[in-house]
Amino acid sequence: MINLGRFAIAASNQPARVAVALAVPGAASIVFAPKGNKERLMRKQALVRKLAAAAQVTSAKGPRAWRLDIVKDLLADLRTATVGGQRFTIEKIVKMMEEEMAAARPALSELQRRGLARALADLRAEQKRPAPRVGAFVVRAETMLWTLASV
Question: What global pTM score does this model have?
């Protein structure tokens, strides 16, 4: 198994059987193999997908830290954006925070889960307002970022 950041590659080279699999988290995996042994290939595909997803979620300096940095940058730009730009950015931030909360859920304590769920509900409420309060949104999102970064 080779982990290349967003990609995972697995290869098997046994006599008369060669299979190569490429998995991208959130996308379909591709397996190149000779005909036959379909059940075995399906198990390999499942394993490759599982390992690629685990690499995406558990990496300390990988995708999770990278995505949290993106949210920080979006929050910094939120105050200077137009109203339409603010609504678009808020929508993206809420979506990313939902994904991050789901990915970090197993490592969170019950108190952290409840706090993040409440903060996410507050972010959604601000998102639905005709004129979102950017200051309140930023404070809630930064609180969520600190909690997620500590996990």
Answer: 0.57
